[in-house]
Amino acid sequence: MNAMKKLLAFAAAACFALPALAQQAPNEMVQQVSDEVLDILRKDPDIKNGSTAKLLELVDQKVLPHFNFTRMTALAVGKDWRKASPAQQQQLAEQFKTLLVRTYANALTSYRDQKLVIRPFRMKPEETDVLIRTEIQQPGNKPVALDYSLEQRDGVWKVYDVTVAGISLVTNYRDQFAQEVRNGGIDGLIASLVAKNRSLEAGGKK
Amino acid sequence: MRTDFSPGKALRVLLAASLLAVAGAAMAEDGDVDVDEPAYAGNPRDPYEGFNRAMFAVNEVLDKYAAKPVAQVYDNVTPLPVKAAFGNFFANIGDLWIGVNGALQGKVGDAGSDLARILINSTIGIFGLFDVASELGLERHDEDFGQTLAVWGVGDGGYVFLPLLGPRTLRDTAAWGVDYLADPLRSVEPARLSNSVTAVRFADIRASLLPADKIVAEAALDKYAYIRDAYLQRRRNQIYDGRPPRLDDDEDDD
Fold first, then answer.
1. Tens digits of per-residue pLDDT, A138-165?
2. Among A169, A65, A58, which Cα is nearest to A112's?
3. Could you give the CA distance from residue B84 to residue B79 in angstroms, rounded to a whole number?
4. N or C: which end of chain B has fewer CB within 10 A?
5. B56 vs B43 pLDDT, higher one
6. Which strands form A115-118's sheet, in the order they lie side by side?
7. Who among A107, A145, A192 is closest to B221 (CB)?
8. CA angle, corner B165, sides to B6 and B141, nearest 5?
9. pLDDT tens-digit map of B68-80
10. CB contact B254 to A (< 8 Å)
11. Chain B (186-225) residues lying within 8 Å, Cβ to Cβ, of chain A
C-alpha cells in the first residue's frame, strides 16, 4: 500500500512537472542544453579522439530537438519558400539540416576549452519570440557574441536562428539560395544541396 | 579584417588600379541595361559583382600560396601566450583610434572608457602586452572610421572585394585609407621595424581567421556570396554596436 501511495505521488508529481518543463524559460533552456553539451564534449573519450560519428550522435540527441528546421529553412529560402510544394519544403528542410549539422558540429569541438556565458535576459510573460545573447569566452582572445533566436510554439521554445559575431547563419544563405532558385528553380536548389552534402560526406570519410 | 599589409608602393598601385577598375565596371554597368529581362537586375548590394568575383579569384590564389602559408607558420611557431600578447599589444594601440571614432560618433562615455583602457593597459598591462582593463570590466569597443561615416549617414557605395584587403564596401575602402593614415605603427622608425610590425600584424589577423576557413569551405554553396553576405551582416552589426534593428523575416533585406 505504501509503495502504491509513493507511486501515485510520483505520478502526480510527474503530471505537474511536465507542463512546468514545457514552460521552461528560454534562457534556462539554452543554459541547460549548452552546459550539458559542453560537459559531454569535455568528457567523452570518443569525441576527444575525433570521432565524427559520436559527435553527430550527440548533436542529434541533445541539440537538434531544440531547433525548428522548417522555420530555419523557410527563413533561408525567403520568398521562394511559398513557391515550393510541401514535399519540396520537406526535402529542403532535410537537406539544409544535414548541411548545417555537418558544418557546425565540428566547430563545436573547438568550444571545449571555452566558457559560454548567458548575458542578462528579461522577457515579458506573453512574449513568444526572444533573442538570447550569450558570449563565448576564450583565453587570450576577444569574446565572441553568440545569439540564439527562439520562438515559442505550443508551449515549447525552439531555436530558429543562430547569430555568430553578428552573422546570422540562416539569413547568410538567402542570396545563395535565391541564386540557385533563379538558375534551376526549387528543384535546382534541392539538387545543389544534395550534391553539397554528398561531397561533404565523401570528404569526411577520408 | 584590418589587413594593413603594405609593401607600400605595390599596394597603393594595386589599390589605385582596383578603384579605377571599379569605376570602369560601374560605367560599363550603366551602359548595359537589360530591357526585356526585368526579372533580375543583379544584387543591389553588389553592383560590381563581375569585377569583385574576378578579384576574389585573384585573392584565392594569393591567399593559397602566400598569405595562408605565412599565417599557418605564424600560428604553428607562436605559442598561445605570445600570440595573446601580440594581439593585446596591437589592440592597445588600436584603442586610441577606437576612442577617437567613438567620440566622433558622439559616444563620449565609450571614448572615456577607451582612454582609461589605454592608461591602464599601457602601465599595469606593461606596454599593452596584457589586457588588464578587460579583466577590470572595461570592455573593448569596436570602432573604425568606416563606422563613423556610416553613423554620419554616408551610404556604403556598394560592395567591393580587393585582393589582400578582402571584403569591403566603397565607403569602408575610403575610410580604411583614413584608418591607415591614423595608424601610429605606420610612423615607427626605422621603416624596417615598422614593416616587420605590419607583417606580424597581418600574419596575426590572417591566423585568427584560419579556423573560419574550414567552416566557410564546408558551409558555402557559393564561397564568394557566403563571404560577401557574412561581411555585410557583420558590418551592419558593428555599425549598430551589436544591436541592429531587426529585418523583416519574410521580405528581402533592406
1. 766 678 889 999 999 988 999 999 999 8
2. A58
3. 9
4. C
5. B56
6. A115-118, A129-137, A144-153, A156-164, A167-168
7. A192
8. 95
9. 999 999 999 988 8
10. no
11. 208, 211, 214-215, 218-222, 225
